[in-house]
Structure prediction request, 186 residues.
Amino acid sequence: MTATILFTPAVGDRAPSSSPLRLTLARAGAPPALIDGAWWPRSRNLTEELPALVECLDPLWGRITRIAVSRTFWPVIPGEVPAHGHMVRVGWSNAGQDPHKLLLLSHTFGRWDLLVIPPETAPATAVRLMATATDPSRSLTATGLIHEAERFRAAAEAAADSDSLREAVWDSEGGHDAPPPRLTHS
Prediction:
């Protein structure tokens, strides 16, 4: 079983956000995997998004001290962010880190890797990714999960297009105007 966190943070002097944090974590004691959970931020603004994530994870994983991201999808990466009464250093890399992964470090418990679901992802796809990222049999990298979700979405769209095409052919051949079939009795 996975834990889906519905956490509404209060960051700094601001009022609590009306939107809960979108985060799911593998269950405690789950076998080691490439991904420990999934995070679906609402924007690409790390300065606004990371404090709420750390505020939620600090009590679960110990004090988060460092976060590493790939520069690929983040327009601005702050050097540090305030979170849960302390400053968290934020680092980045263009090479060596999966662009769809966020790495969190804690002095107490070690390291966690979260799949980062792009903010613009459709809700159905994001929900599927969150479930897949915490599946006990998971073995894909963060980018592998994103690519798998894209293939699933494309296949679903192709199937919907195929159904639409069949309907259009049926209609063009008079199917929608055809009288119902007559039942005959022998």
Remarks:
- The chain has a mean pLDDT of 82.
- The beta strands are 3-7, 21-25, 37-39, 64-70, 80-83, 86-93, 101-106, 110-116.
- DSSP finds three helices and eight strands in the chain.
